[in-house]
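Q: What structure does this chain adopt?
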Amino acid sequence: MVTTAFIQATGAFLRHGNGAFAAAGQLGAALAFGGQRCFSSMPQTSELKAVLAQKIPTEQARLKSIKKQLGSKSLGEVTVDMCIGGMRGIPGMLWETSLLDAEEGIRFRGFSIPELQAALPSAVEGGEPLPEGLLWLLLTGEVPSKEQVKGVTEDLRRRSVTPPHIQRLLEALPADTHPMTQLVTLVAAMQTESEFARAYASGVHKSRYWEPYYEDTMNLLARLPAIAAMIYRRSYAGGNYIAPDPQLDWAGNLAHMMGYDDKNALELMRLYQTIHSDHEGGNVSAHTTHLVGSALTDPYLSFAAGMCGLAGPLHGLANQEVLTWIMNVRAELGESPSKEQLTKYVQDTLKSGRVVPGYGHAVLRKTDPRYTCQVGADAVIELHCCGQLAWLRACLLACLLLGTSGHPACSVPPVLCLMHAIAGVQVVSLQILAVLPCSAVDLVPSTLHPLCSCCSDTTCIALTLPRLRPASAPLRLAPAPLQREFALKHLPDDPLFKLVSQLYEVVPPVLLATGKVKNPWPNVDAHSGVLLQYYGMREENFYTVLFGVSRAIGVLSQGVWSRALGLPIERPKSLTMEVIEKKFGASPAA
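A:
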């Protein structure tokens, strides 16, 4: 039920800050979730929109040049396996905001997740990046300043009030309606506010499609935290809604309105909303949003369609399934099972015809960096030799080659360190550093500091980097981020986190032993649910809603660019089995 205090607090939220959006506060008492009047986000030229407008002509000319010079070039072969196997690996769409590489993982406008953590402004010193900064980056291709990110936060705040019918519609749904059904329903219902739909109906020129599409994108992004929080509070807190905090950012307010105000819970939400935002265009939710948008459907209905795809168990519900599986492991084996017990449990899961949720990816062939930034990792060395990519834990490499026991600060078993590795590598010389302080290690030539804060200066064996020469290919060493990541920083002793770490040691070797798995490494879903559980968000059915709020940043940013670049309606060619058989002279199976 909406209280007077809630409405007053929302008015204060809208009044917070300076400039044009402060005037919105005059309407605050009537606008909060179900107020008597609806807030209209009168379009204003923000700095973000101005920067975007400057870049569009250049990118339009670039695409025109690509069409002219390269339009007839082939991007590769399409096999029958690709046709009947979910179109995997077929390059068939333009997606500017992110690119997924099988070995490197996701890059947002060229930036890896660790690079984003270092480059984007944060709410707290040394903290997680603000999603508003990522939004700026995805739309413009530029890393924003702190002031620019602050401007985006204020613009989203100004646009954040939901239309009055949204709460009425929410409360008309059965209380046990799945949260994703509620999300899709409410997003689609906000189509009544679509600037793009109105502009198209009024005959706006196609060269200006992107402008109302941008306004819809910003309005929808601004309102998603409130909508998600309303769904959460109505489903799990008796409809006791919480007003936004005028001092908080976009993701911080999402956590706050859900009822979580621990500073680390706010940081987790900022991290979560950043890393789930985009994963190039071929996944179900992104592709669906793009496909529906290509018909010039407005952002509300396009995004609602994408969320229907995200609700599937093979896509957005995966982190929920991972957590259920982990809980079953704990229920059957206890909180501290042995390696042997876990190995048998994983093997039994596979023998029963089920998959191990949270492991493997349709594109990636390494540990998902979105997993790593949640869980944390020791230094990793990227080793290219004989065409193979090997991921070696530096702190164990020398120990493995010498056949000794490993550094006590590292729990990674030798089998993982040597996975796909050392083929074609000759050891030229091996330099073992004694127990040295970190500052001394930095002075040693040809070495990298691998552990950083994983152990103290006085115990750091720091290493043990050998000098390797590949037998037939150049060696490239690239250190991964050395910082402690979220879980190691905030919940190192959590039993579920420890269990996830044990599974990371056990699952990949078991999957590889089957001979059927190309990528045995954990993906983002292998850990995100455990972090949410730790901070009290135990309602597993809601996790995909959080995923959806984040995914909006990527798919809607690309939607703006799709309209700006004039991308056409999507229409791939389909075939029948008979056509395939005839094309290659195959006989139908008896």
